[in-house]
Task: inverse folding
């Protein structure tokens, strides 16, 4: 047997990563297209305030519209039912964070009433969403 000849029946020992890279690029494009669709809540005209952004993992969003309607995510709830709507979301002391969005024109009393209902429901992490100030 000659030492310089390769056996043609020997298995290929190199890994071809091209299909793996192709699949990963397709998954990356799919993620980039679908990620903006995961934002929750109702679009509202936010008041402006100087504050640093909060770091959070998918918080529940409670919104108050200009018509004084209350939404949990994108589902409308009555003010009397708000505590029951967020209670399954906030089990125990380490409950999930809830963000409160409100139109600028909504009376302060209604915002405080919603905050009070959320506090009674066991929400301990409540953030208020504002827009950054315009120069």
Result:
């Amino acid at each position: 047997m000659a030492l310089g000849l390769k056996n043609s029946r020997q298995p290929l020992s190199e890994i071809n990563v091209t299909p793996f890279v192709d699949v990963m690029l397709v998954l990356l494009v799919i993620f980039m297209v679908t990620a903006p669709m995961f934002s929750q809540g109702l679009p509202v005209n936010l008041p402006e305030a100087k504050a640093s952004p909060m770091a959070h993992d998918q918080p529940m969003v409670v919104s108050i519209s200009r018509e004084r309607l209350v939404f949990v995510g994108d589902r409308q709830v009555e003010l009397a039912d708000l505590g029951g709507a967020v209670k399954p979301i906030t089990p125990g002391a380490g409950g999930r964070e809830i963000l409160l969005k409100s139109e600028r024109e909504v009376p302060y009393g209604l915002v405080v009433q919603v905050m009070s209902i959320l506090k009674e429901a066991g929400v301990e992490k409540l953030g208020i969403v504002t827009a950054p100030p315009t120069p």
In short: The chain has a mean pLDDT of 78. Residues 95 and 124 are 7 Å apart (CA to CA). Helices lie at 18-34, 82-86, 108-120. The longest strand covers residues 60-64.
